Amino acid sequence: MFRRKHAPDFDSNDAEQREAKINELKSALGPLSARGEKYCSEACLKRYLEARNWNVAKARKMLEESLKWRAAYRPEDIRWPDVSAEGETGKMYRASFRDREGRTVVVMKPTKQNTSSHEGQIRFLVYTLENAILHLPEAQEKMVWLIDFTGWTMAHASPIKTNRETANILQNHYPERLAIGFLYNPPKVFETFFRVIKVFLDPKTIEKVNFVYQKDVESMKVMYKYFDPEVLPVEFGGKNNVAYNHEEYSESMMKDDIKTANFWADDAKTDHANSAINGTMVPEVTPQPSLLAAKAS
């Protein structure tokens, strides 16, 4: 995701050149575990190449680090009961509405922070990201974030350690997944805090962040460019009275857990039965009836 000069004579708008880079990266990776193969789809390889400005060597290094992280952290094996306590207040959830392009929307409300567990918050973030990806339409690769800072104070600020790891995971293991992010009604004090956490963000990510204020007509126009006011929640300046309901959301997440488990089940069994590639074992997931194939990578 960092800005670098393209390789000589490479044109990122040329489909044949892009395809050649994707194939080169695929070959450079070598043999992968079953889950690794499923994760490293053509769309996935393209995202990592874009994140490293189509430099195959750098994209390979980045992707290999992600594969190691996924094998160790096992994001696809996190289930709602593991993180449901973090979601009780509705501080972060996948919205029931989409933006004008049909993309998945993740809502965050920092003032509703309800735990102090660093590991719990990171696992909840990863679970939510995986779930948002699960619900991306076929033609979409990126999601939208709506972050409500109404009433935020420094007392709500996450520890630097958590912010640092959050930035690391988002940028290094979920590259090119953010389409645009809206920071809604951030107070003046947040501007100082944001200057601190910006050091963990690359310039391309920062460009996707928009400060929006309810009383600023021009900034709200930017919001409405991406969202129909009829579907946008009232708390974000829209007309939709939709509200987070933890019980209903939990039921939805439990159903999604079945989809996720079914999608990865065969690969988990294969990786469990064979010696892991690169010395990493991927644990088995019990297969369950599928309701919908997940968009995994």
TrEMBL record:
SMART domains: CRAL_TRIO_N, SEC14. Residues 80-244 form the CRAL-TRIO domain. It comes from the Eukaryota. InterPro entries: CRAL-TRIO_dom, CRAL-TRIO_dom_sf, CRAL/TRIO_N_dom, CRAL/TRIO_N_dom_sf, PI_Transfer_CRAL-TRIO. PANTHER family: GH16843P, SEC14P-LIKE PHOSPHATIDYLINOSITOL TRANSFER FAMILY PROTEIN. The lineage of its organism: Eukaryota, Viridiplantae, Streptophyta, Embryophyta, Tracheophyta. This is CRAL-TRIO domain-containing protein. Pfam families: CRAL_TRIO (PF00650), CRAL_TRIO_N (PF03765).
